[in-house]
Design brief:
The chain has three domains: 43 residues, no CATH class; 138 residues, Pectate Lyase C-like, CATH 2.160.20; 74 residues. The chain starts with a strand and ends with a strand. The strands form four sheets. Strands 5, 6, 8, 10, 12, 14, 16, 19, 20 and 21 form a ten-stranded mixed sheet that branches. A seven-stranded mixed sheet has the order 7-9-11-13-15-17-18, with no helix packed on it. The protein is of the alpha/beta class. Helix 2 runs antiparallel to helix 3. It has three helices and 21 strands.
Amino acid sequence: MKLAKDVYKGQTIFLSRNVPLTERVIDYLRSSGFSHKIAIDDGAVCPVRQSNRGYEIEILEKQHGFLRLEGDVFIEGFAQAESELYCVGNVEVGGDVLAFATIVCTGTLTVKGRVAGATVVAGQNIKVVQAGSQYHLPTAIACIDFQEKLNQEAKKEYERELDSLQQNINKIGAAMAGYSRQQKEGVVQSPAERAKIKKIFSMYTVLQNNRKKIQQQIERLSGESPPLSIHVEMSVAHDVTFGIGDLRLAAEPHAGEVIVSARGGVLHFENK
């Protein structure tokens, strides 16, 4: 057997995952008073289970491959090195997110351990206990409002549609103005012309109603999104980059609570 990840005592590696898990090593763990659970890599892939609260995974493993899930995900243990998860929903990790792992979700992300040399991205707020690795592995933690980006694309499409619609309204408006002048000048119109005018007026009303609906959609998509933040409860190590939206900033090591937010186009760090 072998360990699925390094075993820590506080901030120090107590037992490396590269050490074969022999009876002698197990006896050493017991004699040292180590009582925490350890994760064993036995070669079998942890199943992805569904429950009334979403998807449940004991350990997110590299062997899961490109894992994409729609719904909330609960990882009971940790995210293994080089594992990948893409989720349409919220994600909660019970332990660490290890080196070169990637977690991307559209909702909130909660890591009840350390993000160490990994990349995590959420569409809403992020909360982790510790950020960074003692091995100086690059760590990236970012909030990107995916819904806002989708809204921007949809808004551009509606604006293009509105522009095309307005051009048609202007053309029909010009034709209606011509017929109105004819009526004022006493020009006699045939039944076919009167039917054509009626049809044009009806089309003009439909286009104006569509124009109003599109404008309402654009206004709805133009609303402000709630502010995003990243909350680190305990400490930030070296080589950690935080991001919110398009803003990125490398953080200095810090012992204690850190809250990262964006205001006025600048990232702000609140140290506690």
